Each structure stands twice: as C-alpha cells, then as structure tokens.
Amino acid sequence: MLTSIRPDRDAVALAVSGLLGGLLLWLLGLHTQGGRPFAAPWVSLVPMTVMAAMELLRRSAPRTALTVGTVMLVADQFTRGNLVTILMFSDIMYAAVLYGTPAAARRIPVATLLITVASTVGFLSWFRRPEALLIGVVTGLVSFMPAITGVVVRNHRVAAEAARLAARQTARLAEMDRKQAVVAERARMARELHDMVANHLSAVAIHSTAALSIDDPDTSRNALKVIRENSVEGLSEMRRLIGLLREGGEDDAPAAAPTLASLDVLVEQTNVNGTSSGLVCTLEDAGKAVSAALPTPVELAAYRIVQESLTNALKHAAPGPVVVRLAHGDGVLTIEVTSVFGSRPGPTAPGSGAGLVGMRERVALLGGAFDAGAEPGDDGDGDGTKIWRVRAQLPATEGTMRE
C-alpha cells in the first residue's frame, strides 16, 4: 500500500522546483498582493510549502491534493501571496483531471466553469468597475483552463490506448487467422496424401503378403505385377502432389485433379487389386453423375470419397461385391459405396481410421451430409450377412456450396 502512494520522479521534481522558486520570490520580496490581514512576509511561505507538498500527491492521490491545494489557495489570499503557489495549484488542478477518476474528470471542469462565472459576476456586481472582470479572467486561468487542458490530454490518452488495444487485437486476430489457415492447409494436404497413396500402398501390402505366404510361382508373379503397377501409379500421384505444393521450379504445370470421368479406371484398378481377396467391384451411375457438369471441389471430393471407400474395402471387406452408386438430382450428388462386412481369409492391410475422418471432413467443408457404418444386408435371404455402407450427399451447384 505504501508503494502505491510513492511519488514519481516528475512529482518530486515539480515539488522541489516549486518550493525553491517560491523561496526565491520570497527572498526577492516579490509578492502578488498587499494589504492583507496576515501581512507578515513569512506567513505566505505556509500555503506555498503545503502546496509544494501536495505536488508529491498529484498522481497517487489527486483528489486529496486538489482538496488541500484549494484550501491553501484560499489561505494564500489572506497573505501577501506568492506567484508560485498559484502556479502549483494550476498544475494540481490539471493533474486531478488527468489522473483522477472518470467521474472527477467530468465534474471538475464543470465546477471550475461555474466558479469562474460566479466569481466574475459576483466581483463585477460588488466593485461595479470593468477592472473586476480581470478577477474572473484570473480565476478561469488558474482553475478552468488547467481542468480543460487535463480533459483534452486525458481524452487523447484514452484514444491512444484504445488504438493500441485495437491494434493488438487486430494482430492477435490476424495471427489466429494465419494459424487456422495453416492448420486447414495441413489438414487438406493430409487428406490428399492419404487418399492418393493409401489405395496403392494397401494393394502393395496385400499382394506382397500374398507373395510371401503362398509358395506358387504364378501367384508371386501376379502379385509382383500388381505391386509394380501400384508402385508406379503411387509414385505418379506423389509427383502430382509435389507439383501442386511447389511454389516455383519447372515450367511444366502439375497434372489436373482427378474427375468422376476416371471412376471406371479406378473401379477397374480395384478389381485387379482385389482379385486375390474375392472382391468384385462395379460402378452404377443412376443419374449420369459422371457426365454431369459439377463444381470442381465437389467433383474432387466425390472422387476421393469413392477412392477411399474402395481402399477401405480392399483392406477390410469380406469376399463379395463392392458396388459404387452415383446419383445426381435436385442439386445434390449422392455417392454410395457398399461392400460385405465381415472378416475374410488371406492377407489384409492395417487401417488407422484416418480415411473415415478425411471423408467426413471433405463433406463437412462442402456443407453436405456423410454417414458410414455396418447395417443388415438387403438381399432378403436371412443369413445375417451385413454390409458396410458409405453414403455422402454433396451440394452439386455453386450457390449451395459452403464457402
């Protein structure tokens, strides 16, 4: 608590310089008035000394300093007076508005204005001489003008602080936007990398396991052929991704993003890769969605969803049909991929769950709907067979896409 009322350097400097200046004027015999009740020269030193002490409290306790300073200014009028006492009171008035409470900053200028007007009217009525106006002018210079100056300086400081806070807030928001943009870009890159490479690596893992576990030259030869094809295609996809990420370099533009028109190639490739697992993949285009004009983000998302669904089927589906269905109507592109749910003999590839997360993120970014899970089969034979269904609905027009 004692630390909070400790005077700062400026207050000490003002108090010391005021005290020394007042003593100098007193030694030189320079006073502001004469013919007062307390005419002894030394009496004027009392208000001046107390006023100098109040300068020490100008910032830490401005209300106390102003109250005591006002009393000392009135007391000074009954002595021979000292000019420094009046000057120090003006500084205390200024500090009371600048460093005081907001309520004090509003009330003090009004009060000093009323005092200035009242003193001018009062002395003019009393003396009935134009020179009485000078008393009002001096009163305004000593009280009202320092108060108004304090208001102006305080408002400038408040505005400057508000500007600094706004600048810091803007900088924080910009940094948050930058971090969010980086996170979003990393997520997009992760989805692209996973969707492009996981299909090929899954096929490589399954067929290499088959080649190692089955001692048959034809099986090994076929497995090595599939491994080589998927390795070459995976390397091509990686090069395309690197080309998209590189900011400069070669003049050749990166390959175009895959479209729904190449789904038949993707399905055929899955048939080749899933031969050893007993998978038969087919494509059904109910609404001619493959040939429809779709926004590029929707078409890329749809392709990646089908690609990841086929990759998951290659990793986990039991032997049986894998059906890809597309339907386009009423401004919505519907993608559905079904496969037999259950365990299967032979080699499998491990999964991490990132594929489902990536598909859900792609659909959410476009403002669509996504669902995936096991459900009873629809063949009606009652054998308890379940299917794994991935279903996504994407807005197929620019106006309905989420920005």
Can you tag this structure with a few keywords?
Heat Shock Protein 90, 5-stranded mixed sheet, alpha+beta, 403 residues
Your description of this structure?
By secondary structure, the protein is α+β, with helices and mostly antiparallel strands. It has 2 domains: 9-170, no CATH class; 259-403, Heat Shock Protein 90 (2-Layer Sandwich). Helices cover 60% and strands 11% of the residues. The protein has helices spanning 9-27, 45-55, 62-76, 83-99, 102-127, 133-213, 217-245, 263-273, 296-316, 354-365; strands at residues 279-285, 320-329, 332-341, 369-376, 386-395. A 5-stranded mixed beta sheet has the order 1-2-3-5-4, with helices on one face. The radius of gyration is 44 Å and the shape is rod-shaped.
User: What gyration radius follows from the Cα positions, in whole Å?
Assistant: 44 Å
Number of helices: 10
Pick out the low-confidence regions: 248-255
What portion of residues is helical? 55-70%
Task: Return the average pLDDT rounded to an integer.
Answer: 81
Q: Mind describing the biggest β-sheet?
A: 5 strands, mixed
Strand order of the largest sheet: 1-2-3-5-4
Number of strands: 5
- What fraction of residues sit in β-strands? 5-15%
